[in-house]
Amino acid sequence: EVADLQDDARGLGFRSKKPKCSSLQVKYSNRRGFALHVPLPSDARGNPISLPFPRSFLPVEKRGRSSQTFTTHELNALNARLQDAAHDCMVLTEKVLEQLVASIAAHLPLILRVADNVAMLDMLLAFSEAARQ
Question: Residue 53: CB partners within 8 Å, gap ≥ 6?
Answer without folding.
Answer: 21, 38, 70
